[in-house]
Amino acid sequence: MKNYYIYGTKEINFNSLQEDLALLFKCTLNEHDSSWWGIYAKGATKENLNIKLYPNFVEGEGHHVENKNFNYLLEIISTETSNIASNSKYSYQLISHKKL
Questions:
Q1: Is the pLDDT higher at 11 or at 86?
Q2: How many CA atoms lie within 13 A of 35 on its CB side?
Q3: Phi, psi at residue 21, to the nearest 5°?
Q4: Closest among 71, 31, 32, 27 to 49, alpha carbons compared
Q5: Total domains present in the chain
Q6: What is the reported pTM?
Q7: What is the maximum alpha-carbon separation in the chain?
Q8: Which of 7, 22, 38, 40 could staple 55 via S-S, CB 3.0–4.6 A?
Q9: What confidence score (pLDDT) does residue 1 get?
């Protein structure tokens, strides 16, 4: 069974978040550009953990989550439970958690 998490952060520096997550999860996050997600970073680990960091607000699309205080959202899909909020040097708040 997989866990699907979405976290929000008020941090405004995309590059700093991306670097921190790459170190934290020991993976490479590759940047992509999408009209729906905006400029986002996506990566995976050998342990079958998938990560996506993307802006909460995208011009022409609006906010991805209702809480407009979050600048970036972090999506994690993993077979393990996620404890990003206590492991990162940045502050993340859990928005949702579902079992897939």
A1: 11
A2: 1
A3: -65, -40
A4: 27
A5: 1
A6: 0.91
A7: 36
A8: 38
A9: 84
23 Cβ neighbours under 8 A, 6+ residues apart:
none
- Structure tokens belonging to residue 63: 């906010």
Per the listing, tokens 């996620």 go with 82
pLDDT in tens, 42-79: 999 887 789 999 999 998 888 999 899 999 999 999 98
DSSP 8-state secondary structure symbol assigned to residue 79: S
**Is the separation of the CB atoms in 100 and 33 below 8 Å?**
no
Its domain, for residue 45, covers 3-99
The neighbour count for residue 35, using CB atoms within 10 Å, is: 9
**Residue that has been written with the tokens 């209702």 in this structure:** 66
Place 84 in a pLDDT band, splitting at 50, 70 and 90. Answer: confident
CA angle 26, 54, 70 (to 5 degrees): 110
Tell me the CATH number at 70. Answer: 3.30.310
